[in-house]
Amino acid sequence: MRITSFIAAAALLVSAPAAVAQEYVDFKSPADGFSIVFPVQPKVTESTFTTQNGSVLPSRILAADTTTGRYVVTVVDYTNIHQIAIEKAKACPPGAETCLGTESDVSSTGRGYWKADISGATIYATYLYLQRDAKLTFMGWETMDLVEGTLISLTNNTDGSHTSAGIYMHENKLYLLEATEPKNVPPPDWFAQNVGWLEADGTPIRYLSVYHQGYPRPQKARRRAPEGAAN
Predict the structure, then answer these.
(1) Which of 52, 59, 136, 165 is least crowded, fewest Cβ atoms below 10 Å from its Cβ?
(2) Per-residue pLDDT tens for 60-87?
(3) Is 3.40.1000.10 the CATH number for 5-79+119-222?
(4) SS3 helix, strand, coil % of the chain, rounded to 5?
(5) Which residues have CB under 8 Å from 172's CB, separation 6+?
(6) Residue 52, Cβ neighbours under 10 Å: how many?
(7) Residue 116 and residue 128: Cα distance in Å, rounded?
């Protein structure tokens, strides 16, 4: 399922006071493999993300702040986690299997638990959201262009604001999308439901059956590359 970005953005513009009306940004990043609608142009920050088993991975944070809310996409790159976990495991104490893991084709962990980190990436990300000082109001499974993910809605205890988040894993990248708006406006569910997936040349893609990270990729329906696709 996917809510059309133009419909969602238009609905918000109609309901917003003229004083805060704004141009929405149809943001595309082929390098990060996704597209999404931001309320304003996001700022990009290079960062890191620590996995459940302690591997430190490169990430990019794209954040857009408005007068009322904050919209953030975090992209965590798991592409090189095997080698990163091998290097991490070199510092493990002798015999500490829960740190070292097992490097073999049939191992469920891999050296430094890299296999476990990929398999459990979305579950661990969900756990991190649930550690916030907030009340969980919804959590459920969803697909966006047939890439499976988890949608979460939170009511923050400090000020009653609403956070809507989407968690997806696609082509060895973890996507964390969240939007927070004040308590006196509807929850910003539209943000995490406007994500799309891009090939390296900027072509939008949609699968013909559900995509599960770690399983063979399903067939794709190719779409014409948009003009001016850029990071």
Answers:
(1) 136
(2) 999 999 998 999 999 999 999 999 999 9
(3) yes
(4) 20, 35, 40
(5) 77, 78, 79, 81, 118, 213
(6) 15
(7) 17
